[in-house]
Amino acid sequence: MPHAPSPVVAAFDLDGTLTDGGSVFKWLEHVAGRGTALRAAGRLIVPLTLGALRSGRTADRAKERLFRSLLAGREWSSVEHASRSFILEHLQRHLRRPTVARLRWHLEQGHDVVLVSASPEVYVDIVARELGAHGALGTRLAVDPLGRLTGGYLGRNCRGKEKMRRLDEWIDGRGYSTPPDIYAYGNSRGDRRLLARATYPFNLGRLGRWGALRRYPSLPVTTG
Most Cβ neighbours (<10 Å): which of 13, 46, 80, 93? Predict the structure, then answer.
């Protein structure tokens, strides 16, 4: 009797993979105002620069400090509303069509598609719904009992090891009878563990063979 094919999960990063460039600071500008966001970033220029250079926990802490300075005390409902208007406009301008075509190919094949991003889940979830994906995993924001943001994370920044932990948790929740084959698409150092874990990893970085994911193949030209 032939074996049933293994289930397939396709995991896509957001910034720099499904879209051009970053979204997080643009989102903060939209939520808090451009001038306010720029002044906050200026006050934190040293930790933010060190975070960009060192990555890892240094980057996570610097990002959370920026979030606290701009988001603490804001009503969750208003931030959620602003996030929707921001990301819909962002997608119109910055979607990477070849990557989106690849995502749609996975959907046509009946694969389970999930977005796994360090960007705030409040808008990663909207991207997933717009593209027809089955799930969205992002950095979750902590909310106090009065419905206001604390400015901190709920859990950890969804990058590196945390991306893989959250994906494993999502896969476990799907209840597959056998472990799925995993396609993974990323573009930066924060995606290295995700791609290392994948059955079929792909490098979507603009630097190609000179980038952090140079050991992995680029997106196939054809998807059939």
Answer: 13
Query: Is residue 19 a contact partner of residue 96, using CB atoms and an 8 Å limit?
Result: yes
Q: Which two tokens stand for residue 23?
A: 């979204």
CB contact at 8 A, 119 and 23? yes
* Full-model pTM: 0.91
Q: Write out pLDDT tens, residues 138-194.
A: 999 999 999 999 999 999 999 889 999 999 999 999 999 999 999 999 998 889 999
Structural contact between residues 122 and 79, judged by C-beta atoms closer than 8 angstroms: yes
Residue linked to tokens 């999960």: 9
Cα separations in angstroms, 90 against 7, 112, 122, 136, 149? 32, 24, 14, 17, 23
Distances (CA, A) of 53 to 47, 50, 62, 189: 10, 5, 12, 11
